[in-house]
């Protein structure tokens, strides 16, 4: 039998244990380009491990819908992952703390247009879950020779509702 998780709005305070919310909240740190551009500087704690480097990849994920069955979570022990939507649509983010090498009870967040997330290294999270088409994202994460993926199937699964 599955358990139900209710979506929360994505805020920096609520998401803090899992990663960074990257947005243009507050005043810009600097005004650049002859006064025509506000720079919101250094908004994420990117981590690429001792032997990794930053890489930018494009992901094109199939959109899902709510209610959503969360049956797989993963983590990347050697680096963070920033998900940058390439459309104006929000997306679903599921994350969990660690409990003895497995995900604890997940939390679900709905992003708003203009929000980007950076998931900390070694943080359990669900797969990329756009809720509208196209599901196109730029992803900044670790590129390296050592393995950086651990997956766990959830039994029973969780059902995420709005």
Instruction: Examine the coordinates and then state which fold CATH places here, giving the name of the CATH topology.
Output: Jelly Rolls
Task: Tell me the name of the CATH class.
Answer: Mainly Beta
What class do helices, strands and sheet pairing give?
A: mainly beta
Q: So what's the oligomer here?
A: single chain
The strand line-up of the biggest sheet is: 1-11-8-13-6-16
CATH superfamily: Ureidoglycolate hydrolase
Determine the strand fraction and express it as a percent band: over 45%
Largest sheet: 6 strands, mixed, barrel
CATH architectural designation: Sandwich
Radius of gyration of CA atoms, rounded to a whole number: 16 Å
Helical fraction equals under 10%
Q: Give the number of DSSP strands.
A: 16
Q: How far is it from the N-terminal to the C-terminal residue, by CA?
A: 19 Å
């Amino acid at each position: 039998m599955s358990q139900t998780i209710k979506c929360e709005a994505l805020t920096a305070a609520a998401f803090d244990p899992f990663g960074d919310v990257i947005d243009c909240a507050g005043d810009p740190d600097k005004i650049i380009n002859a006064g025509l551009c506000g720079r919101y500087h250094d908004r994420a704690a990117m981590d690429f491990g001792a032997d990794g480097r930053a890489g930018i990849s494009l992901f094109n994920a199939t959109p899902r819908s709510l209610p959503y069955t969360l049956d797989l979570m993963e983590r990347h022990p050697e680096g963070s992952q920033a998900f940058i939507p390439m459309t104006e649509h929000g997306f679903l983010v599921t994350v969990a703390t660690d409990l003895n090498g497995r995900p604890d009870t997940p939390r679900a967040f709905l992003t708003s247009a203009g929000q980007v997330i950076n998931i900390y290294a070694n943080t359990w999270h669900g797969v990329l879950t756009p809720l509208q088409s196209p599901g196109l994202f730029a992803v900044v994460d670790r590129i390296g020779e050592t393995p950086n993926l651990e997956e766990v199937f959830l039994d029973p699964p969780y059902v995420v509702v709005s």
